[in-house]
Amino acid sequence: MNPIRLLPLLFALTMSAALAQQDEPRNGTLSFVLENDLFYNADRHYTNGARFAWVPDRRQPVPQWARRSAELMPWFPRGATIRHGYAFGQSMFTPRDITLRNPPAGERPYAGWLYGSVGLGVETEQVVDQFGFTLGVVGPASLAEETQKFVHRRVDANRPEGWRHQLRNEPGLILSWKRSWREVHSARALGNEWDFGTHVGTALGNVITDAKTGLMLRYGPDLPRDYGPPRIEPSLPGASDFHPAAGFRWYVFAGLEGRAVARNIFLDGNSFRSSPSVDKHNFVGDLQFGLVVDWKELRMSYTHVARSHEFKTQRESDVFGAFTVLLRL
User: What average pLDDT does the structure give for the chain?
Assistant: First the structure.
C-alpha cells in the first residue's frame, strides 16, 4: 500500500470523525501545540512538532463508541467522567548540521511523522486514565521535508540539504496508555497553593515502544483541576482541555519524566527496510518547567524542555520550547 494514500485516512480519523457525529454538539476546546528548538537558537534533532486537538465539552453527551470503549476496561469505575478527543499533527527530526548534503555516520537521520489520533479519558476524583490510538506515516509521505523548507524560506533560515537521506515511507501505529494522579499532596506556601502529581504510562507500536514514569509540581494562587498543559508525545502528560477562569489566573510548574525505550523508529530506522539509523540510549529523561496563564476562555502556556542524550554519538543534550494555546468554543 502506498503510504501517501493514508493521508485522507488521517484527516478522516481526526477532523471528519470529530464532526461526523450528528448527536454530538460542537462545543468544546480547540488546542494548538508548537514545539521547536528555534526558541533557543538551535536547529537539530527533534527540531519541530505541531499538533491541533479538539476535545468536546465535558457537559455534552458522551458518544456511544466512547462509553462502550471505556466500559471494556476491567477496572472501569462507576460514576467516572468519560472524555474523548481528536488530534492531528506533524513532527520532524534532523541531524545536527542541516546544511550538509550527506550527513556523516553517527548523525541522527532525517525523519518526518504525520499522524492522526483518537483519545479516550476516564477520570474519577484525582485520577485519570488516558488511552490513545494513533495512525500515521513516517517518511516522505509525512511532508516534513516540504514543511521545513517552506518555513525556512519564510524566516530566512538555513536551507536543509539532506532530506534525500530521510527514513523511507512506513505506516505507523501507536497504542498508548497513561495514568495520572493529581494532587497526591497539596499545601500552601507564601500565600499560594502548591501540589504535586505523578504518572505512569506505556506506548506500543512500530513507531514508539516505551514505558515511562514521572512527576509534576504546580504552584499558584488558585490551582485549577487539571494535569498541566498539553504536549506532543513522548512527554509528560497534560490535558487538551481546562476549566475556564473567572478572570485572570496563573501557575508555574516543573516536572521530571524517565522513559525506558525499546523502540524509536526515528533513531532505529525503518522496521523492514534498510535506512539510516543510530545506536539509541534505552533510558531517556526530560526536565521541564514553565508558566500557564488563563484568561476566561483562553489558556496560554510556555514550557522549557531539556532532554537527555537519546543516542550514543550525540554530542550535547537537547533543549526546546513548547508553546500552547487553548480556546474554549
Answer: 89
Give the number of domains in the chain. 1
| Structural domain contains residue 232 | yes
SS3 content of the chain, % helix, strand, coil (to 5): 15, 50, 35
Nearest CA among 155, 149, 153 for reference residue 112: 149
**Alpha carbon 71 to chain centroid distance?**
25
CA distance 131 to 121: 6
Residue with the three cell numbers 483541576: 225
User: Residue 192: which domain range?
Assistant: 3-22+43-328
Whether 281 is covered by a domain: the verdict is: yes
User: What average pLDDT does range 294-299 have in this prediction?
Assistant: 95
Residue 29 lies in a domain: no
Beta-bridge partner residues of 181 = 127, 198
- We report the CATH number of the domain holding residue 86 as 2.40.128.140
Helix (H) / strand (E) element for 147: namely helix 144-155
DSSP 267: H
Residue 34 falls inside a structural domain = no
Phi, psi of 95 (to 5 degrees): -70, 180
Residue 120 pLDDT greater than 60, yes or no: yes
Q: Which of 123, 135, 144, 137 shows the shortest CA–CA distance to 50?
A: 144
- Is the model more confident about 267 or about 78? 267
